[in-house]
C-alpha cells in the first residue's frame, strides 16, 4: 500500500508565494488545481485562496485521469509491488 498527503497549512502562505517569486510569476499567471473533495474545500483554505486572488481550476468530479498526481501514484504502486516480489522471492 502506498499513501501520501500534503498539508495546505504553510504551503499556501510560504511555499506557493516563494515558488511564484522564484519563477517570476504573478498571481494572475497561475491557475490553482485541487481536488473536488470536501477536505480540499475547507472554509479556511477557500477564504485564503479568495483573499489571495487565486483562480481555481474547475473540473468535473470523479475524474482522476485529469489529475497528474494520480499517474505518479500508479507508477509508484507498480514499482513498489515489483520490489516486494523481488524481496519476497
TrEMBL record:
Residues 16-82 form the Tc1-like transposase DDE domain. It holds the Pfam family DDE_3. It comes from the Eukaryota. InterPro entries: RNaseH_sf, Tc1-like_DDE_dom. GO terms for molecular function: nucleic acid binding. This is Tc1-like transposase DDE domain-containing protein.
